[in-house]
């Protein structure tokens, strides 16, 4: 019994181990052995049961939807004729749009800056203020910055999908493309 007490004391002196132990400061995670207050509901089984039920319902809806509706595919590819415009899949159209302006900025600088920003984000904003609160005033700067980045990505994708025509020229969606495209 005495050995267990010494081990517990040494553990308390060193501090708790966490997944990100190399980050100094208090953890936002709650202790497992802390009493649950009246206003809290345990995750297991209440939340997990609801999430599992939601996943099953979404899966059933997607299966029925995929059976009833055909995918909007184009005709079979012809190796002798390249389509004009040759567009990337929708999730890469934002990058294709940026590369059409400048290959260096759109293909190197912007993707590298976004990747470095996302990698550094957990180390930049480590304040526990407003954690778990939607649109907390303490986090308004990061919310605005994230919204601007997301808006830029969505705008470039929309331009690539709806506003680019033959030879990657700009066309309004309600105007017809010239030629037999």
SSE topology sketch:
Blueprint (H helix, E strand, L loop, with lengths): L1 H13 L28 H26 L24 H9 L1 H22 L15 H23 L19
Helix pairs in contact: 3-4, 3-5
| Contiguous runs where pLDDT drops below 50 for at least 5 residues | none
Largest pleated sheet: none
What is the radius of gyration? 26 Å
Report the strand count: 0
* Global structural class: mainly alpha
Content of β-strand: under 5%
Indicate the overall shape.
flat
Percent of residues in helices comes to: 40-55%
Helix and strand pattern? HHHHH
Discrete helix count: 5
**How far do the termini sit from each other?**
83 Å
What's the mean pLDDT score?
A: 81
In words, what does this structure look like?
The chain is mainly α and 181 residues long. It has a domain at 90-168. Helices cover 51% and strands 0% of the residues. It has helices spanning 2-14, 43-68, 93-101, 103-124, 140-162. Helix 3 crosses helix 4 (103-124) and helix 3 packs across helix 5. The longest helix has 26 residues, at 43-68.
Key terms for this structure?
single chain, 181 residues, mainly alpha, 5 helices
